[in-house]
UniProtKB/TrEMBL annotation:
Organism for this UniProt entry: Zunongwangia mangrovi
Gene Ontology cellular-component terms listed: cytosol; periplasmic space
Stored PANTHER family: PROLYL ENDOPEPTIDASE
InterPro entries, A to Z: AB_hydrolase_fold, Pept_S9_AS, Pept_S9A_N, Peptidase_S9_cat, Peptidase_S9A, Prolyl_oligopep/macrocyclase
The protein, known as: prolyl oligopeptidase
SUPFAM superfamilies given in the database record: alpha/beta-Hydrolases (SSF53474), Peptidase/esterase 'gauge' domain (SSF50993)
UniProt-listed Enzyme Commission number(s): 3.4.21.26
UniProt keyword terms in alphabetical order: Hydrolase, Periplasm, Protease, Serine protease, Signal
Peptidase S9A N-terminal domain span: 36-437
Keyword Membrane: no
Peptidase S9 prolyl oligopeptidase catalytic domain segment(s): 494-709
UniProt record, GO biological process: proteolysis
Amino acid sequence: MKKMIIGVFTLAALASCKDSEETKKEKETALNLNYPETKKVDTITDYFGTKVKDPYRWLEDDRSAETEEWVKAENKVTFGYLDKIPFKEDLKKRLSEIWNYEKIGAPYIEGDYTYFSKNDGLQNQYVIYRRKNENDEAEVFLDPNKFSEDGTTSLSGLSFSENGKMAAYSISEGGSDWRKVIVLNAETKEVAEDTLKDIKFSGISWKGNEGFYYSSYEKPEGSELSAKTDQHRLFYHKIGTPQSEDKMIFGGTPEQKHRYVGGSVSEDNKYLFISARNSTSGGKLFMMDLSKSNPELKTIIGNEDTDTYVIENEGSKLYIVTNLDAPNQRIVTVDAANPSPENWKDFIPETENVLSPSTGGGYFFTEYMVDAVSQVKQYDYDGKLVREIELPGLGSAGGFGAKKDADTLYYSFTNYVTPGTIYKYDIEEGTSEVYNKPNINFNPDDYESRQVFYKSKDGTKIPMIITAKKGIELDGKNPTILYGYGGFNISLTPSFSTANAVWLEQGGVYAVPNLRGGGEYGRAWHDAGTKMQKQNVFDDFIAAAEYLIENKYTSKDYLAIRGGSNGGLLVGATMTQRPDLMKVALPAVGVMDMLRYHTFTAGAGWAYDYGTSEDSKEMFEYIYNYSPVHNVKEGTEYPATLVTTGDHDDRVVPAHSFKFAAELQEKQAGDAPVLIRIETKAGHGAGKPTSMIIEEYADIFGFTLYNMGFEKLPSESTELKD
């Protein structure tokens, strides 16, 4: 197979180019891909005596005209390349075909209506419908496709008053985490009052029919997309009053300063529970008795050593989910008069499997992860096991929640080859029936998933689910995507992806390991991939790649690694540590500058997982040793790389991806392309319109297959470029 001739742009003197002008001209004549010039500025930070250069720090200024021009120039090169991939349009067509099926969400009752979400197929956003009676024709309640002409304004939350006559919904514009909240008369669907603005990282929790609680920060000075936000506050909004009169409930004093604050009202409207965190793991828990005219703040947990929340109450009896003295979580009970841990009693004790409980119809439903696969049990309010719920197969079940007086609930079931199907569950009888099974142009029977266990570098056993066509030949030539995350206690459980269905149709292999840092085996598994043990996560991912190669699922020439956000960091660290291991790298919205991540937006809240470069010399050196931006080396042949991000990403700011791409483009010694695809009017991913998603996957899959050597889609031909 002849290598594709693609070049690396050589920077001018400003960028300390080592090549002579003559050599540069010779290269540019021979090569067909020239990157934009990215200037370098002498910016140096001293960390415990180590002076670290940061020549691309100017790209952190998302409001500058210079950064805007750089984005345009990079996109011109990137899309100029992607649009020439011979089968990109074929991929886009197939993605559109398979995506074009009706998708319906589980119904729920609010007031006199049953609500549900639906997408006809290729609509950019799901539409909220409702009906009064089962036989009535559904009417549109909210159509987010009409929020903006280009579909980039999305619905990010919807909550109803107790009687269902009022509703509050939040919107995200261009993918930003900053929200606006609109209050409706649910009966007439008319806007009831002025829009609430500048709300971020917030739910909407109603107190009866009077008003609701929400959280936000002071609008930051400078760029709202990148400036630091670290004092979250809880407010109460009374219906019919302006936002300026909203009462601050928690977070306004130095003693109550936390990065993440949330409020939740119990279903009986008796209690307000307040969580307060400075990191994504561990937090304090408080409560107020709303039945009192001047409720006092009462402490349940006064430190940030555990993850604890109230899931239910019966009068003053609280049911609390906690990992205090139970890394895999348990449920305890306590009286609201004395709710501190010394008074807790086990209700559903900890087991060897991680617990994720919910409630509905007067019962508790406990979902357990057994090697990342769901097992669900039903308990009564005395803690007695009623039954284990028979699921449709091995996969992920979720949604076992309903109001206390419900007699039915709805749950979903999915795995890597089964599109998400909704089941109606009779709570008393324990029987399930299909409520909605999607009619998708994909045959799950042609594919299979198998779970394997492999050893990481230190001998730890890691599970991985590998999905492919039945009877696939293990000859080392199967195009393979290895996808990972490994952080923040997040578990990767089996779920169907319409886009991945197209990858599987092309003879592709899709492999997902459950890396340390995730939540699949509880807090200990999470902690084993944090701070000074973060390298475990990268080692687990590298070992997964080696397993796939050793067992002939794929080979170095047909392996792509992919991940987003913390998973983008995973890809960045893996490709800089082991550039020899893969053909393609696909880091998405990644945390790439580990020395400065905590200085942007809410990044400081990730310190539980990462630590920070300011913590200690030891921590700085550890982070510096794997930070992707700082570990791109001159003279190294890196895999073909497509970095993806959004210009409105205010969670992992795009500067991470900008700086990483600039470093790679400067230092790439091989022929493989290094491109950055910057989506405009898009954020971290949530709410992205369907049309944008399809375009992005066509580019990602096209880039991947083309750089594995395919001139035609694998389903059409196994011929490689000659």
